[in-house]
C-alpha cells in the first residue's frame, strides 16, 4: 500500500479547471497539483475549493490579483 495519500479533486473544481485548459484534462490536473502564487503557494488541489474556483474565474476573465 502506498504511504502517500492522494487528494481527491473536487468534481466542480476539476470541471472548471478542465474548461480553463480547453478541455485538456491532463493539463488541468497538472495545474491543480502545482503551487499557485495566487493561493499563497498552495497547490489548488490542497486549497479551499471556493478560493480555487474564484482564481479560475479571475484567470478566465483576465483579472490580475
Describe this structure in words.
The protein is an all-alpha fold and 65 residues long. It has three helices and no strands. Helix 1 packs across helix 2 (25-32). The longest helix is centred in the last third of the chain and has 12 residues, at 49-60. 14% of the residues are buried.
Briefly summarize what is shown.
The chain has helices spanning 11-20, 25-32, 49-60. With 65 residues, the chain is an all-alpha fold.
Record the SSE blueprint.
Elements: H1 11-20, H2 25-32, H3 49-60
Number of helices: 3
Q: What is the 3D form?
A: globular
- The portion of residues forming beta strands comes to under 5%
How far is the first residue's CA from the last residue's CA? Answer: 41 Å
The level of helicity is 40-55%
Rounded mean pLDDT is 91
H/E topology pattern: HHH
Structural class: mainly alpha
The major pleated sheet works out as:
none
| Rg from alpha-carbon coordinates | 12 Å
* Count of DSSP strands: 0
Low-confidence blocks of residues = none
Task: Give structural attributes.
65 residues; mainly alpha
Amino acid at each position: 500500500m502506498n504511504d502517500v495519500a492522494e487528494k481527491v479533486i473536487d468534481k466542480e473544481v476539476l470541471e472548471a479547471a478542465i474548461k480553463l485548459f480547453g478541455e485538456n484534462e491532463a493539463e488541468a490536473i497538472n495545474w491543480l497539483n502545482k503551487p499557485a502564487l495566487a493561493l499563497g503557494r498552495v497547490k489548488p488541489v490542497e486549497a479551499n475549493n471556493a478560493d480555487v474556483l474564484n482564481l479560475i474565474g479571475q484567470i478566465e476573465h483576465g483579472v490580475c490579483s
